[in-house]
């Protein structure tokens, strides 16, 4: 096969691509009339909510749609050659060699029973027939390129011996082995922690430049796309709805969906009371229930009957005055895109009341077997999941608990709920000690008072019980209602509270969408009029447009019921949006605690600073200080000595001697109850600059 | 009279089965018409494999019921010997058929001059009576022990798993040879084992109802009392039999007696099957207990048994239903094995294992007595396996 | 790793002790002893006679004591009758009183004396196990490769025609217990009057009237294809289907794994994907299954040896159990329990070896 070396057009031309999946009952169109061009060296972002067909596009390009999927229209041209004309042999030569792909779960993408080195070496050995030795040499080079420490050792490791971040770097290395001209990244960092994600994203960007690779970057995160791409294509329900350069789309959007999307994500400046998020009304249409005309029509603020719901496909229309900027909206020229946001009523802030919950030097240690598989004998290791947690939570207050995996936030929740008992310290609920009372021994009132909303909407409801039954069971357990009829009435009220139609009472959980399930979860938590609700990442598994609605619901219930909300999250944008106070945790320690303003402005704890810098923000006006943390989060089984953050801290050199490595820093009051656990001098704290700046327009 | 030709034999056999055909056709028509409303059972009719399996299983179930309850299908008494019919080939006419007596041995006679066809048909009744019920009991035992083992883990799990492995390490046949002998029946050990094993359904139902309704004592107490009364009566009737070591119930209250032979077969089959069910349930419980809805139940202060029986168990039903079908097949094979070694069931019993065992002695000269029960057993087990496969496939497809 | 094996061996020992005690308990129940007395003594013994017969031979000692004697941790039972004959556990026919050892249990290497075969248990076990070993060897040779190949071929392309037909074959074979397949094979292939034999003979394909023999007694001396293939096939058939289905399920699951997609998108050929990426991962599950199949294979051996009259270990088990030959039965159960537990250990070790994710450091 000869390669047209002189090809100078776009690397990838997807034209009017349509892809369908075929089930026993019907054909389900997953992608319709999708066009995008990727120029050499360009990075194009593909953004949309789950189910919009963005991953299907990627697999369509690779022609790997499985048994049920098929391309039913349009063409994909790679370097000017139509991929449909290629036979299996030619396709194989392109795959992995010219086009490489990286996707979400790094652990699942690597063969668990094959050493990393062999998996890497395979690529040049398949495509260029090079010798083992040569292949190994190249593997070493690439591993060094992806900035992995000790490349030789890593080559001889099995995937499970590496951390998540390292695995994803290996996947990237594998994709780069043959210096492809196009790299397709499908949510490459979704499974990673924020600080690790930041490092991986930086790596991808740098390597893309170094190798001159074009990129198709698929993500649901607008902020990430802003940081990595030159151009963006927004997808909705199988179609591209807007396409253009990052600046054009972010600052001069021309499609109502794009606008709605931006209004539903918490950007700096959004505030739960004065400038709340605006959720997109309605639900994502199922592929076989799409409306006539514009797919977004039923949820669109600018919908006009007779125009938007006419039985015809709407084409992509170029936006005048911009280069390569198109929108799939019939009315975009009539819409005043600069009209100020019409504010829903500004909400009054709930008055923060008395202290209801107080933690005092709470400690939780676990003993775990060093070797999980082979039983309990052998060495026991102590995992210090929580190390002296002290804080107070007030009535009507939202306290955010922020941290990445292994920071001990879930353990804390378990101890509070009574699923575990504390090792030391105390938890006071209305001045009563509850830290040693396991849930079975707590009285009904205490149990009903502290409830929890869980992370994964697909896991939070019992799949084999109707929604109504599950809420009624909670009522039964909390001893509410004298009869079944009573409870049923109360259950319907609760459905009203979370704004779900009453018919949902008789549905099974699988008939509900993720956001709806999460609402049922909230209704269940409030069944016994909970006073303290622990929300463990309640929206992180939801799509952005749904996130806003669910957060707002939580806020509203909080205002009405004066609930104390403990909001566990790793997403600083949402934390900044809704919390009154923030607690930052790292490896079981509280490293910073203060009001939202205190935590989000200097002086910072070095970890908070890095965390703030790592969070991608979908706003072109934001300038961030660039801080990338080295390495991964240490294991909680084997934490570093002294300060838990010392292995990754960029300020460590500013502390004299080896204080950081030997001593756990004291908790220091920076004024007004702002606490930081750090050895740094006051002088240095004063020098710290804000991480996020909003550039003046 | 002339012996029947093979075509005539087949036609006559097909005709004998006519009530079964009618029942099958009705079942299939009704099920296919309403399949969208019948949940997983209805979905079975989307899969060819599942339908074939279901058809085979129902064929034998209907045959068993028609033969065992309504005295249809079979042609002669399976135990009576007709002179001159010893080892006669299929289609042989009776020497002197009386008025109203079926004039042929459709599948020939065995070495005691009994009708092979009738024995095969009535043999299915033995299997259909014992296998599903024994499997059900094994599931009750496995679930009642497996759920806490998987849910609590720790010492309890180690201990129960050790016991389960202990039984599993026993070669089944050795166990049968030790348990299913007249001497052992004499000692009363099977009765004691039955006392223990049959306790499990009662424990299971009690805990099931109590954990669900303890918040509503006005409903719980009468419900539980009624259910327990009935179950205890049945329990006592089952374990107590005159003349054995356990004779606790006066005979006017004793609903039925189970012959010692059958009881010991039943008990040992349950005993052999339970550890495997235990292991499956334990594994499923360990998996499901990490789900958030289990945590949600815990955080609202639900009891342990409620969580195990109402939160975990219903969500483990898919794999359990599939395994239930497979296990009935396995139990059928075990019953055959027992019959094959002449253990437990009375020697003249028409069950398939015993018939195969008798037929094999003259196998290379007269294969016709051994083959029909062999194929019958084969087709029933095959049907159950296909049914399980179809169910598994359809439950995954959602 | 060493510690792990040591612990497993400990568990094995406890399991073996428990199981042998159960066997000991069941075989030594009074009705069984009564039967023993009557078969050894005479059938018309009175109840008192039975009792004194048992008493004299130490059968009426407490169960744990007898068990300990059998194990060899307590001195063997000795009883000198009034007429001067010495009876006891350790007494062998023709032994002088002063030659009798104090201990004679399993620990001393004395497995007792078989009342049915009139021979030392250890000797019977050795010869019988040897015969069964040959049978099992051929079963393995036939079963494992064919099952794995069927499973891999079927699971490699899930839903294809090859998959469907191979899966049907394996389901069919798992639905055929040994006593059914054996009977069918004999009727079909080993009968000189029916089945394929006469037909093949007519066509001149075989010399005799049947291609195979319906009994494997002669195979004990001289195994040939003719007398040995049917028993081997009969045992292998059931297991083949089972392992093939496991392999297929495991293979089909692996083929949908993300890393297989990685390999495909790397440009690897289908052959390469199957051989280098899928196979090792797909064989982890069936490996454990093959090993855990042993208890069931033991069943198959018992049935087939009975059916084909091959006097190996399984046949011995039936004879011993049918006649309440206590010490023989104990020997048999020790061996079978040992085989089962050893295969479990091998399966665990092999699992660790095949699956690098749980390699112990």
Automatic annotation (TrEMBL), chain A:
Membrane topology designation: Peripheral membrane protein
Chief localization: membrane
Keyword Transport set for record: yes
Gene Ontology biological process terms from the UniProt entry: peptide transport; transmembrane transport
Subcellular location: Cell inner membrane
Family to which this protein belongs: Belongs to the ABC transporter superfamily.
Protein's recorded name: Peptide/nickel transport system ATP-binding protein
Species, as recorded: Salinihabitans flavidus
UniProtKB/TrEMBL annotation, chain B:
Cellular component per GO, a single term: plasma membrane
Keyword annotations of the record: Cell membrane, Membrane, Transmembrane, Transmembrane helix, Transport
Database matches in InterPro entries: BP-dependent_transpt_permease (IPR050366), MetI-like (IPR000515), MetI-like_sf (IPR035906)
Gene3D superfamilies: MetI-like
Entry annotated with the keyword Endoplasmic reticulum: no
Domain of life: Bacteria
UniProt membrane topology term: Multi-pass membrane protein
Subcellular location: Cell membrane
A Gene Ontology biological process term: transmembrane transport
TM spans (from-to): 6-32, 44-70, 125-147, 159-180, 192-211, 223-241, 261-281, 324-345, 365-388
Pfam hit, one: BPD_transp_1
Cross-referenced PANTHER family: OLIGOPEPTIDE TRANSPORT SYSTEM PERMEASE PROTEIN APPC, PEPTIDE ABC TRANSPORTER PERMEASE PROTEIN
Protein name: Peptide/nickel transport system permease protein
Species of provenance: Salinihabitans flavidus
Automatic annotation (TrEMBL), chain C:
Keyword annotations from UniProtKB, A to Z: Cell membrane, Membrane, Transmembrane, Transmembrane helix, Transport
An annotated GO cellular component: plasma membrane
Coiled-coil annotated residue ranges, if any: none
Gene3D superfamilies: MetI-like
Location in or out of the cell: Cell membrane
ABC transmembrane type-1 domain residues: 129-347
InterPro entries referenced in this protein's UniProt entry, alphabetically: MetI-like, MetI-like_sf
Record's bilayer topology term: Multi-pass membrane protein
Signal sequence segment: none
Matches recorded under SUPFAM superfamilies: MetI-like
Protein's UniProt keywords contain Cell membrane: yes
Family as reported in the entry's similarity comment: Belongs to the binding-protein-dependent transport system permease family.
One Pfam family linked to the record: BPD_transp_1
Protein name per Swiss-Prot or TrEMBL: Peptide/nickel transport system permease protein
A biological-process GO annotation: transmembrane transport
Primary site of residence: membrane
Residue ranges of the TM segments: 9-30, 135-156, 168-190, 228-245, 283-308, 328-354
